[in-house]
Write a sequence for this structure.
């Protein structure tokens, strides 16, 4: 597989392109992302689905600009997909041939089921794990759902209801009642087994709503991916967005480019959530583009015909215990092997448990031990702060915001006196937990100068064996702020 792969997703409202860069076999990150509001579906829903010339021209202009960036970044492979507007259009083949002839891009139309499948695959692999959930991906022309259970997609459905479709058929004509009835009638077709207390929200409209809620909360992590909220806390706000003509979207930080379709998205969302009896919303910053990329990365020999026939039968996942964001950060920024630090941090956590009495958080401590010095690639001075920044802004896949905040705090506070947790306080455990975890990392990283150390804890003393003659090591340990009164002895 090429080192750089681009996925172009052409929807009814926007054309998007993501450029993925692989850092190892399965490690990757998004190098660049582009979005252009092309409105391919504009004017089509009221005219038998036929794509209009101006809309098609807009897409070709956008794709030609995408090709410019493909050249700049030397992208080796391009996967180009089209969704609802192309599925519906009687003249879609004419447009696809134009794209091929004028730009050399192979535009593949995917079914609604495949669109649901790709969104589900992205959520399964790149969100923090959920035992059971239903994805909702609201696009311009359609809405897709995937039911997830025990790490698999067990069912998928595509509904012919989307933001641009609702806008043109009803909102532009001032027919709110018609829009409501149309949406309710379609949503009534969702089978009952899609009901779930946990909903994964995919798509631009739902990310915009989550972004607004984050602003209202003054949420300290800025990336919307994996942001979670209780639906009942914001149901009134979402209903207000959907139905109140006088509501000023600027007051809740909805981006200007979402003004014309956010109401339709909110209407669809509120009615689907009610139908599915959902309680918690998990925001996904990933969707069809990531799903297409992951399928190509993890199951490159799986033919499209096999997926289209029965996509839910195919499990597409990373090797057990593998995280692509963690691997990617290590590939790009780690200047040394931290396995000794990780070994010591596990041993110290266990042997000092009678003192710290912390149950849980060992996983976060281990991840911190793998990434604590990655900031050195940015600069030696303030390397802990740089490492924490990388965690908060690049450890995107598979970790909750609470986990990211804790891993970053463990790294940033190691060796320091902690009197306040600052803006991240609401995402972090008790301050004593953070003090202990950061101390354990600081102690393990200092001891990593020697590969043959063992530990014993007795009579309120931590005995460190195998480091007696390491002057620099002992000097570093003396600088650490111990979170409890106990002795350290070198033997």
């Amino acid at each position: 597989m090429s080192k750089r792969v681009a996925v172009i997703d052409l929807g009814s409202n926007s054309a998007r392109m993501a450029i993925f860069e692989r850092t190892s076999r399965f490690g990757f990150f998004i190098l660049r992302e582009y979005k252009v509001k092309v409105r391919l579906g504009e004017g089509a829903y009221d005219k038998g689905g036929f794509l209009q010339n101006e809309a098609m021209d807009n897409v070709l202009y956008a794709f030609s600009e995408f090709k410019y960036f493909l050249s700049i970044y030397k992208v080796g492979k391009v996967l180009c997909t089209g969704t609802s507007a192309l599925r519906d259009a009687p003249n879609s083949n004419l447009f696809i041939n134009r794209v091929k002839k004028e730009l050399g891009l192979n535009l593949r139309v995917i079914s609604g089921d495949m669109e649901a499948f790709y969104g589900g695959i992205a959520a399964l692999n790149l969100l923090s794990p959920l035992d059971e959930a239903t994805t909702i991906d609201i696009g311009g022309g359609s809405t897709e759902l995937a039911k997830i259970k025990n790490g698999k997609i067990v069912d998928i459905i595509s509904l012919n209801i989307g933001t641009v479709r609702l806008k043109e058929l009803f909102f532009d004509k001032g027919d709110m009642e018609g829009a409501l009835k149309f949406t309710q009638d379609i949503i009534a077709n969702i089978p009952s087994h899609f009901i779930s207390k946990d909903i994964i929200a995919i798509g631009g409209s739902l990310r915009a709503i989550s972004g607004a809620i984050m602003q209202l909360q003054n949420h300290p992590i800025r990336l919307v991916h994996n942001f979670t909220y209780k639906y009942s806390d914001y149901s009134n706000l979402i209903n207000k967005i959907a139905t109140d003509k006088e509501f000023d979207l600027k007051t809740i930080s909805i981006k200007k480019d979402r003004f014309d379709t956010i109401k339709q998205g909110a209407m669809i969302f509120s009615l689907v959530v009610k139908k599915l009896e959902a309680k918690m919303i998990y925001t996904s910053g990933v969707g069809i583009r990531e799903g297409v990329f992951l399928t190509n990365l993890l199951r490159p020999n799986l033919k499209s015909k096999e997926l289209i026939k029965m996509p839910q039968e195919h499990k597409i996942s990373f090797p057990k215990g593998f995280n692509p964001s963690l691997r990617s950060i290590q590939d790009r920024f780690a200047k040394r092997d931290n396995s000794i630090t990780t070994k010591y941090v596990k041993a110290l956590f266990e042997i000092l448990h009678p003192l710290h009495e912390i149950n849980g958080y060992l996983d976060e401590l281990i991840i911190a031990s793998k990434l604590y010095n990655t900031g050195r690639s940015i600069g030696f001075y303030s390397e802990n702060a740089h490492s924490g920044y990388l965690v908060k802004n690049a450890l995107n896949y598979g970790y909750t915001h609470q986990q990211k905040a804790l891993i970053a705090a463990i790294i940033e506070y190691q060796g320091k006196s902690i009197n306040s947790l600052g803006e991240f306080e609401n995402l972090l455990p008790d301050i004593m937990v953070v003090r202990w975890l950061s101390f354990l990392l600081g102690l393990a990283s200092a001891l990593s100068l020697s590969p043959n150390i063992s530990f014993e804890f007795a009579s309120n003393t931590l005995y460190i064996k195998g480091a007696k003659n390491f002057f620099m090591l002992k000097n570093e340990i003396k600088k650490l702020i111990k979170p409890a009164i106990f002795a350290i002895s070198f033997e």
Residues 53-72 form the longest helix (20 residues).
